[in-house]
Design goal:
The complex is a heterodimer of chains A (229) and B (537). With 229 residues, chain A is an alpha/beta fold. Chain A has 2 domains: 7-120, 3-Layer(aba) Sandwich (Rossmann fold), CATH 3.40.50.2300; 130-225, Arc Repressor Mutant, subunit A. Chain A is 40% helix and 21% strand. Chain A has 8 helices and 12 strands. Chain A is globular, with a radius of gyration of 18 Å. Chain B has 537 residues and is of the alpha+beta class. Chain B is built from 12 helices and 12 strands. Chain B has helices spanning 6-19, 21-81, 84-100, 134-137, 140-151, 198-248, 263-319, 326-356, 369-387, 406-423, 453-458, 480-490, and strands at 109-114, 127-128, 158-167, 170-183, 187-196, 365-368, 391-394, 401-404, 429-435, 439-446, 494-500, 504-512. Chain B has a 5-stranded antiparallel β-sheet. Chain B has a 5-stranded mixed β-sheet with strand order 7-9-10-12-11. Chain B has a two-stranded antiparallel sheet with strand order 6-8. The chains are: A alpha/beta (229), B alpha+beta (537). Chain A binds chain B through residues 14, 16-17, 20-21, 23-24, 27, 84-85, 87-88, 105-110, 112, 188, 220, and chain B through 301, 304-313, 315-316, 319, 339, 343, 346, 354, 359, 361, 363, 366, 375, 406-407, 410.
């Protein structure tokens, strides 16, 4: 990963804001690429091959939620939504369509950069190379999850979420703990981030998402990893 | 033991009388028509009875006169023959003749008596129908009149009198008709015919009962007709009243059915016209209000993008302020703080517009309120320190878990604490947490300047400030308490205030421990009983 000169695709139709974000990103040593139209966003994503996408939810051409869905279909590249609305429905829709995190306008440069850095940082190191959760095998170094011979495609965020649980299989994680470890929030944040991504992760790794065996719910507390089998 | 509660019945009846126009109208109509029908019926019964009696009497009088003639002729013939036996038997012969004549009908009793003023030999003897006791039926008044008529030789005249005929324990009406006859050589006799009028009485009885039945039927009919007519009038009025009630309850689509062109249809039409214009007004106002709320929401959203750019720009400048000349550096600082203030104001405005639009969802989970209070206290502790206020949490044990949305409750607490620090004059601030089985209460008590009752009334108003000249340090937007009040209401809770000038203020938040339950009382007093320390008194 190119942490120092990471390329960031900024999809926003407001040129002033895009330019300002560009200035902030350059100051922080990133390499911003711009796209002002939703319908061109997926093409711009393919051609620029960014390390992270900053995506405005309200876009001409194609709305941000649709763009996120299209990008997720072909890549697990981190997506951070820029949203003017913190209303439940909109944010949840964005997260469900595959966005990893969101920043509510108006945000400040530090907040934005912190969010970007969290998503670009390398996974936490662990002594073990291989971890087991239920009937899954996590190849930590290779960033791969396998069930038997089949490989399960997870986004970096989903992998990190599963990894966080798998490293300490005895521990019950509250949503706040996961927000801190996986999303890098050191203060109270939106627990819907955890809820939505646990759902997405379960849809990929569980045999029966309604009766989870990999990411177990501990009622009233949070989640823990299923026992290795 | 059940006693008849006539007072209760009376009360119910009076209530019904007052409440039902229909009942009242029907009752009055039936009462008045009963009165009228009774008078008319009584008059008719009496006049029919009189006519019946008069015609029967006249008929009987004619018959009696004929019978009297017959007897007189018989007597005259007997006298001419002059035979003693014939004279002795003259009364009996006359009796038989009368009995066989048309003057006698079944049940007619006959008596031929010697006039009381006659002297001399009593030949022939008196004759009477068997079982007839002349003395009991023939009054002396009648006898006198007949006797007087005989004396004045006014023989064809007949006299009558009504009597009651008793037989077999039955009393029948009857008429006694008397006339005077003369048996030459013997003197004057009196012929009495006693007719039983029970057949006429029967006719009268049947006429009267027919009248009575007819009268009753008429009254019932009038009652029924009134009921139907009143119903025709009252029905639509009642429908209009029901509709008005529904309209008042918010069912703006309700209308009264319009039928015909009469006065009731006019009422229905004007009622509906009123409802139409009412609905139009309400819908117009509702739309206006929606448009306005939408506008506020849209403005807030539209402002966010440029505000973000300004904020990013301000922060970039602020980060480089050390490289600027002092005036420019200060400008960058001011820009940054004011953009922040603007941002908070915008966020509050947006939140308020959400409440106004009724578009707020609540996402609750069991939360430990003491921990929440400690969090909130921590978040304002540095501010409290700069103002010299000590923050003290008083939390006796109990049930502290409640189903709340932590974010909103934390916002309320931060707001209350911020206000307490602002107006606390650097004195300590107590935060009480207590609970009972159904509710949890948090009270924030300061010992600062306090408020007048007038100020307390307005403290939850939007953009209202206790003292506009007062320095604002916590950068409140003026919407804080208004939002807090909405947040509390959203949880089904209360946010109340107590204050006294010079003694400080206390805001008490009471929340039901389970969602959807109704609060009855708060576990904390307002203000809470003070555990007064050394700083007071």
């Amino acid at each position: 990963m190119r942490t120092m000169n990471a390329r960031i695709l900024v999809v926003d139709d407001d040129t002033a804001l895009a330019e300002m974000i560009g200035i902030v990103l350059r100051t922080e040593g990133f390499d911003p690429v711009f796209c002002a139209d939703g319908s061109e966003a997926v093409e711009a994503f393919r051609s620029s091959n960014p390390d992270l996408v900053l995506l405005d939810l309200m876009l001409p051409g194609m709305d941000g939620i649709e763009v996120a869905t299209r990008i997720r279909e072909e890549s697990g590249t981190p997506i951070i939504m820029l949203t003017a609305k913190s209303d439940t429905a909109d944010v949840v829709k964005g997260l469900e369509s595959g966005a990893d995190d969101y920043v509510v306008k108006p945000f400040n440069p530090k907040e934005l950069v912190a969010r970007i850095r969290t998503r670009l940082r390398p996974s936490p190191h662990t002594s073990a190379d291989v971890l087991h959760v239920g009937d899954l095998v996590l190849d930590v170094a290779g960033h791969e999850v396998r069930r038997g011979d089949g490989k399960i495609n997870l986004t970096p965020l989903e992998f990190e979420l599963l990894l966080a649980l798998a490293i300490k299989p005895q521990q019950v994680f509250t949503r706040e703990m996961l927000l801190e470890q996986v999303w890098g929030y050191h203060y109270k944040a939106d627990t819907r981030l955890v809820n939505v991504h646990v759902q997405r992760l379960r849809a990929k790794v569980e045999h029966d998402p309604d009766n989870p065996r990999i990411v177990m719910t501990v009622r009233g507390v949070g989640y823990r990893a299923g026992t290795a089998s | 033991m059940r006693t008849f509660d006539w007072r209760g019945w009376l009360r119910r009846l009076v209530g019904l009388w007052r409440s039902s126009l229909q009942l009242r109208t029907v009752a009055i109509t039936v009462l008045l028509s009963t009165f009228a029908v009774t008078i008319i019926g009584a008059y008719m019964a009496i006049s029919v009875g009189n006519n019946l009696f008069d015609s029967r009497r006249d008929e009987l009088l004619t018959q009696s006169a004929q019978a009297s003639d017959t007897v007189q002729k018989l007597f005259n013939a007997t006298a001419e023959q002059g035979a003693a036996t014939n004279i002795e038997n003259a009364a009996r012969t006359a009796f038989t003749a009368v009995l066989q004549s048309s003057a006698s009908t079944a049940g007619t009793q006959i008596a031929i008596l010697r006039a009381p003023d006659q002297t001399g030999a009593r030949v022939p003897n008196d004759v009477a129908s068997p079982g007839l006791q002349p003395a009991s039926l023939i009054s002396t008044a009648l006898e006198k009149r007949v006797t007087a008529a005989g004396a004045s030789n006014d023989t064809p005249r007949v006299y009558w009198q009504s009597v009651a005929i008793r037989h077999d324990n039955v009393v029948d009406p009857g008429i006694v008709i008397g006339s005077s006859v003369t048996l030459p050589s013997s003197g004057r006799y009196q012929l009495y015919l006693i007719y039983n009028l029970s057949d006429a009485q029967q006719t009268l009885g049947s006429v009267q009962s027919t009248l009575l039945l007819g009268g009753l039927a008429l009254i019932v009919l009038i009652g029924a007709v009134t009921w139907v007519v009143v119903r025709l009038v009252v029905g639509p009025v009642r429908v209009a009243a029901d509709t008005a009630e529904k309209l008042a309850a918010g069912e703006l689509e309700r209308r009264v059915p319009e039928r015909g062109d009469d006065e009731l249809a006019t009422l229905a039409r004007s009622f509906n016209g009123m409802a139409d214009s009412l609905q139009k007004q309400i819908v117009r106002l509702a739309t206006l209000s929606q448009v306005q709320q939408r506008f506020v929401s849209d403005v807030s959203h539209e402002l966010r993008t440029p505000l973000t750019t300004i904020r990013l720009a301000g922060d970039v400048l602020y980060d480089q302020r050390e490289t600027f000349p002092p005036a420019t550096a200060r400008t960058a600082e001011l820009l940054r703080t004011q953009v922040q203030r603007f941002e908070i104001l915008l966020a509050d405005l947006l939140e308020m517009s959400r409440y106004d639009a009724g578009a707020v969802d609540i996402d609750t989970e069991p939360t430990n309120l003491v921990r929440l209070v400690e969090d909130a206290v921590d978040s304002v502790s540095s501010l409290a320190e700069t103002r010299g206020s000590e923050l003290r949490v008083v939390a006796p044990g109990g049930y502290f878990e409640a189903e709340v949305e932590g974010r909103r409750i934390r916002r309320i607490l931060q707001n209350l604490l911020g206000n307490a620090i602002d107006h606390g004059e650097g004195r300590p601030i107590d935060v009480y947490v207590d609970s009972n089985q159904s509710a949890v209460a948090i009270a924030v008590r300061d010992y600062g300047i306090g408020m007048t009752p007038a100020a307390m009334e307005r403290v939850f108003d939007r953009f209202w400030r206790a003292d506009p000249s007062r320095q604002r340090t916590t950068g409140g937007t003026g919407l804080g308490l208004a939002i807090s009040l909405e947040d509390a209401a959203l949880h089904g809770g209360w946010l109340e205030v107590w204050s006294a000038p010079g003694e400080g203020s206390c805001f008490r938040l009471t929340l039901p421990r389970e969602r959807g339950t109704t609060l009855r009382s708060s576990p904390l007093e307002l203000p809470p009983e003070e555990d007064r320390g050394d700083d007071d008194d």
